[in-house]
Amino acid sequence: MKYKSQKVAYWFFALSMLLLVLQITYGFIMGFARIGMDGLHEFIPFNTARAVHTNLLVVWLLSGFMGAAYYIIPEEAQRELVSVKLAYVQLISLAAVGVAAIVGYHFNWWEGRKFLEIPRQLDYLVVLNVLLFLALILLTLFKGKRKTTTALVLTMGLLFAALLYIPGMLPFDSQVTDSFFRWWVVHLWVEGVWELIMGGILAFLLIKLTGVDREVIEKWLYVIVGLTFLSGVLGTGHHYYYIGVNKIWLIVGGIFSALEPLAFLAMALFAVNMYRKGEKKHPNKIALFWTLGAAIVSFVGAGLLGFAHTLPQTNLYTHGTLVTAMHGHLAFWGAYAMIVLAIISYSLPNMTGRKYYDGIRGRVAFWTSNIGMIGMTMAFGVAGVAQVYLERKFGMEFMAVQKEISIHFVVLIICASLFAVGILTYIYDFYKHGRPTDEALEKAEHEYL
Structure pTM? Predict the structure, then answer.
């Protein structure tokens, strides 16, 4: 850690860990409900649990991205954050909005729009929160001694993510028009600008962990940015197949969705090549595990599994089934959750001065969570394929099919338990590092760079 203000990142990461535990808890509530153990239904019906589960995913990842920015930007800009107090104000307001939204969902206070359920009144508070965050990051970057490509790509991703929140706030009377612009937020976040955020964090970590020259690594970033915009923007079309828009989207969506794995393939090749070129052996192997793991698993989950059901001919049958859940779980895990866990694993010893990266806990957390997630993906996949055949090919009723495939959710819960053990081990390791301290200033960087 080079600057005192980087300690702000710790509290954003701590908030992420808390929200991740809550997200997993609501995932278990849904999983048990699927096999008939729905004792909480009166208090937490399935639709509420689903809304909380998916929205918590977004919030804990955003908190992780913000923490990453508060750690990376001061170091890249070579100066302290412009205002630490305002960063803490932003953290508290983010947590307050998140708690209000989660509590509100349990009292049917929401908009009912998938992935964007947050009530409109809270939308305005989210906008104010994000504007404050961007002001702090942009001012720090503007006043800094240098403006690196890594910092600019990360900032560009965060800025575009904020701008793309606005289409989701526009009121429409038409369900079709509302869905059309809702996907501008959901798709262009996760398959567009969030990839820039991932690319920026990935580049920072590879510079620190491999010792490869910054110019070499940042040239790859231009390739990733180009591929992301080429495929991600018009790839939104695969969400427009069956919502009532013009049929041209079948062609546009089909072609550009097929190109979307290229950006993730570039990131995987990028990370592996930089690791092989690296001459310095950084002792924080756990951070390296998460970094390389994020690049490789995102290519499989977001790239290959996404491609498997985005072509119109396939999507006709798989649309809205558990095949989507299969792709979604591994894609979010690989692309965004693992990169957040990677930057936490790298920055935590630097902020606290406690080097626990050689311990067994870190390896147990990495392998059990990944094996658990792969098991969950396979359970969703098998259940999804069975659902497609029974429901879409043989015409069975939806609820009858759900009963037939319920056995796969038993497997899912077992794998999810293994995943939860990995995450809880990671969080215990986070807790054991303790709080950040000024004694950690400069220590790590002087030793390894």
Answer: 0.95
Nearest to 204 by CA among 77, 15, 301, 359: 77
- Residue 36: DSSP 8-state: T
| CA–CA separation, 298 and 290 (whole Å) | 12
pLDDT tens profile 370-398: 999 999 999 999 999 999 999 999 999 99
Q: Cα-atom radius of gyration of the chain, to the nearest Å?
A: 21
Contact criterion met (CB below 8 Å) for 429 and 359: yes
Cα 276 → chain centroid: 26
Other CB atoms closer than 10 Å to residue 145's CB: what's the count? Answer: 8
- Name the one residue in this structure whose structure tokens are 């038409």: 174
Cβ atoms 405, 328 nearer than 8 A = no
Task: Average the pLDDT over each of 94-103, 273-282, 405-414 and give the range with the smallest value.
Answer: 273-282
Q: Which residues of 40-79 are buried (b: 16+ CB within 10 A; e: fewer)?
A: eeeebbeebbbbbbbbbbbbbbbbbbbbbbbbbbbbbbeb
Q: What is the pLDDT of residue 442?
A: 63
Q: Is the per-residue pLDDT at 445 higher than 70? A: no
Q: CB-based contacts of 390: which residues, under 8 Å, 6+ apart?
A: 396, 400, 401, 404, 405
- Please state, in angstroms and rounded to a whole number, the distance separating the CA atoms of residues 129 and 384: 38
DSSP for residue 173: S
Q: Measured between alpha carbons, how far is 202 from 220 in angstroms, rounded to an integer?
A: 11
CA distances from 72 to 193, 228, 295, 397 (A): 18, 22, 19, 51
Work out the burial of residue 307: count CB atoms within 10 Å of its CB; fewer than 13 is exposed, 13-18 middle, 19 or more buried.
middle
Interatomic CA distance for residues 247 and 244, integer angstroms: 9
Nearest residue to 287 via CA among 395, 368, 204:
204
pLDDT in tens, 333-363: 999 999 999 999 999 999 999 988 878 999 9
CB proximity list for 183: less than 8 A, separation 6 or greater: 236, 239, 240
- Specify the amino acid at residue 362: G
